[in-house]
Each structure stands twice: as structure tokens, then as C-alpha cells.
Plant expansin
Amino acid sequence: MFSTFATLVLSLIATSAVSALVVPRTAAPQGWDTSALEPYDTYHCRYVAIQCQTQHNTQFFSDCCHPLAAGESASALPAQCQMPSGVTCSNGEPVSNGGSDDGCDDGPSSTPTASPPASSTFVQPAPLPTTSNTPIAAPAPTTTSEAVSTTAPSTGSSDSSLNYGGYATYFYQEGNAGACGTVHSDSDYICAMDQSRYGNSGNTSPLCGQQVQITNQINGNTVVVTIADDCPTCQNSNSIDLSVAAFQALDDLSVGDLPITWKFLN
């Protein structure tokens, strides 16, 4: 696995201009205990580098993909849990020791995605250029009472708020089960919720199976999806990772990411 993944990481780094890039969370998930757990950037880098997002419901995930206690060293983990050879961490992202660009720059890119990534790594393209007609999404999640409809917060209860300030991205399924324990194809209308909403990725969340209606703030296109996974690399708690088919219902894949509003339907 190491040689295959090392090749993948180096490939991702070398193609930082492409619109599908892993973007680290700007802050640790809500409730991250910094006194009891390792730094979030350290955990996030290792999680992405050893492809934990493709290993849900496996012994590998149980052995390698949970955060360490503060003061505990990753060197004590089994060999398969170690960082790939030639890869280190920078700002919470895996990078090659050769010093090539790791793709963490959030600057816009004009190069569309030429082909699908080699794995189901959660991806975040470069942000769209902002124009006078493009809604500017706030980096921190907020809510508004505009366009009132039946929605719910992360617990699934009902209120009249609409969630905004997030982005939609897309990821490939490749036959891997999501955190909810189900396997889907790229043509299924499913999504992965930000981990601060989903909860422990090793468990089935109360959000699993709930439906979410998502609207593209730029063109008004809307899609309804079912929650099937968690997203540890989404930009904030109001960002959602979509299956390929669900993203295409909002816009072309070459767009990369979209400012969205969304609400729970059940």
C-alpha cells in the first residue's frame, strides 16, 4: 500500500494547478480537546497521508485512523499506520520532501480537472473567482432565516433556518463503504457531511440516511442527496462533499467547488 499511496501523494502534489485539491480545515472540529489529543494538524495530515477516508469499517481504520492521546507518538503505531516514505507534513497536509508545491494554496486555478483522481480522497478545488454577481461565502458557518422551510441543525431536529457559508465539492466512491457503512456508486445521489456535524467517523451517525437539499448559489440549481459518509477535510461545518452525480446536478465537474445553501428535509 505504501508504494501505491506514495505515488498518489506525489502525483497530487505535482498537479496542484488542477482543480481537485485536498484543502485542510481552517480549524479543528468543534469539541477537539487540545489538552487530551494530539494537534489537529498532525492528525489530519496522517489521516490523509495513509488514506483513512477510504478505510472506513475496516481493521486498518481501527488500528490507524483515530487521533492519538496528547504526548503519544505515532511511531508506536503498527507499521501500516506510519507516514509513507518521502512524505512529511506542512500546515496539516502531506507533502513530499522534495519541496514541490503541496497544493495547499487556495488561489484560483484556470486549469480544469483532466481526469479522475487515483483514489476517493476528499477533494477541494481552487475557489471560484469572485465577481459582483457571485455571493461571497463567509469562511465561518452561519445561519439565516431567509427562504424559510423545514430544516434541521446537525442533530437532525427541525427548525426554520437555512445553512449557508459552505462549499460543495465532490469525491469518487471507488467501491469503498462510507462512514455510514454503505457502499455507493458515483451515480448515486449521496453526500458526506463535515465531521464536526457527523461525529466520530468510526461510528454510525444519527445523520446517516437523512436527506439534504442543496442549492448552488450561483445558478440556482438544486439537488436532494442522502447522507452516507463524513468529510474530515471540508472547509467548515456547512460545507458538503458530494458524489459525482450529485455535483453534476448543480454544475459541471470542471467548476471544482460551489458556494451553497442547504437544509435538512427530514
User: Anything to note?
Assistant: The helical segments are 2-14, 40-49, 59-64, 195-198, 244-250. The chain has five helices and nine strands. The first helix runs from residue 2 to 14.
